[in-house]
Design brief:
This protein is mostly helical. The protein contains six helices and no strands.
């Protein structure tokens, strides 16, 4: 997949937000990392993969996909802020959803401590592997990203 289209969309959204709130992108790296961690937790909560004590089913696939692309927005934004770009490589699903979430959390922390290109690409690849583990196709991911991107603009216009 060519990620440049999504990077360009994210760049426009980030610029819109930064202009609207008089922000400088380089000042919000830690906040974006924390936001990514929070979004990952919200995603895990929707999958319910760790809730061994519960019989309640996971949320609908569309709800899970929307949570997934929330995290993707922050990963793309961090790449833009720090001058990193992910280039498509084959990804392999994890053995379980729980393993996938734990791996992504670990790589977020590694990236937070060392925001270099290698750690960014590992984090991005791991996040894509999580998506594959959750059963998302590339087409679903792109469609959901476009839809959520529109929602994010609407939210900014409504004072979210």
């Amino acid at each position: 997949m060519n990620w440049e289209t999504l990077y360009l969309m994210q760049e426009k959204l980030d610029h819109y937000i930064e202009t609207h709130h008089q922000l400088n992108s380089s000042e919000n790296i830690k906040e974006k990392v924390l936001a990514l961690q929070v979004e990952l937790g919200e995603l895990a909560n929707e999958t319910r993969c760790f809730k061994f004590w519960s019989t309640k089913q996971a949320s609908a696939k569309e709800v899970i996909l929307e949570e997934y692309v929330d995290g993707l927005h922050f990963i793309l934004s961090l790449g833009l802020d720090l001058g990193h770009r992910y280039e498509s490589q084959p990804v392999t699903p994890f053995a379980s959803q729980t393993e996938a979430f734990l791996a992504v959390y670990s790589l977020i922390e590694q990236f937070r401590n060392h925001t270099n290109d290698e750690n960014y690409k590992k984090l991005f690849g791991s996040y894509l592997s999580l998506g594959e583990t959750l059963g998302f196709s590339e087409a679903e991911l792109v469609r959901a990203y476009h839809a959520k991107n529109e929602v994010n603009y609407e939210r900014q216009d409504q004072g979210y």
